[in-house]
Every structure is written in structure tokens, then in C-alpha cells.
Amino acid sequence: MSNSENSIEIKASTSKSAISKKTRQKALNELQISENLKKQADELTVEYKFEDWNHVDQVLYAYAKIKGFVWRLQNTYYRVDKSISKKVFECQHAGKPKPHKSNDPDKIRATKSIRVECTCYINICWPKNDSNPRVTTFESQHKNHDLNITTAIFAPS
Ligand SMILES: [Zn+2]
Q1: How far apart are CA 44 and CA 138, in angstroms?
Q2: Distance, CA 43 to ligand 1 centroid (Å)?
């Protein structure tokens, strides 16, 4: 139905998003993964500190690209002042398959959900009194699907 499940989903803040979701998506797709960013993605673990939410997007994008999967922004939490306090990303294959509306059994069989209950997810929190957002939970194991590792990313430049 939508193609959003095939890409990183970035929920725009309802209040004051300077750039649209589409623009951010495009910016991420065109982002060159620098050696530095690759290194940061390699170090991604619990307690890893980011500079800001933009940096979170960049490192997570690099991480997913290197590993061969796609994140889905599962939820965003806001403080009273509308700034972001927490983001939860999960693998696009996480979650239960969406129930199908059709009663036609042939149709149900033909429609494969990309959600196969993969368990990979990451919590990133930015407590109000902290200077940086950081990883609080990271389940890096994937389940029930393959990773599409692209060799191109490791090619020498
Ligand atoms: Zn997965």
C-alpha cells in the first residue's frame, strides 16, 4: 500500500519541522558514508553518545547500510517543550505481519508482509539534563530474514 516500509521512516514533528520528511529522506539517501561515519557505525553500542539527533540519523543510516538492512522509526517521544527526548528505531522487518483486510484466501497468500517479527531495535534517549543523546538499549540481532550486504560499501574509493 505504501512504500514507506521500504525506507527509513522519519516522522516529522507536527509542530515545527523545518524540512519535510521527503527532503530528509533524500538527504539521507544521498549522504556519502565517510570513513569517519563508518567507524562511528562500527562503534554503535549501548551508551554510545551522539552529537545531536541529526548525528543519530547519520550514524544509524551508515550502520544499516553497512549491515544490509533498513531502519523504521518506530516511535518518537517529546518533552513538554516539544523537543525530542527519545527515539525508537526498529528493523523494517520487526513487528507482526499486518492483518490483511481481504477475505479472499488466495489474496492473503499472495501478499507477503515485510514484517517477520525481527527483534532488532535501538532506543536512543536524550535526557533533559544531558548534553547528548545516547543509546540506552540496542538489540542488534536480526531474526527471520537475511541481511543484504552490499559489497560496494567496502570498495576502496
Ligand atoms: Zn531485522
Answers
A1: 9
A2: 19
- For residue 157, tell me if it sits in a domain: no
* Residue 142 CA, ligand 1 centroid: distance in Å: 4
Instruction: Measure 118 CA to ligand 1 centroid, in angstroms.
Output: 5
Residue 17 lies in a domain: yes
Instruction: Provide the number of structural domains found in the chain.
Output: 1
This prediction's pTM: 0.72
Model pLDDT for residues 23-48, shown as the tens digit of each residue: 776 666 666 688 999 999 999 999 99
In a domain, 156, yes or no: no
Backbone phi, then psi, for 80, in 5-degree steps? -60, -35
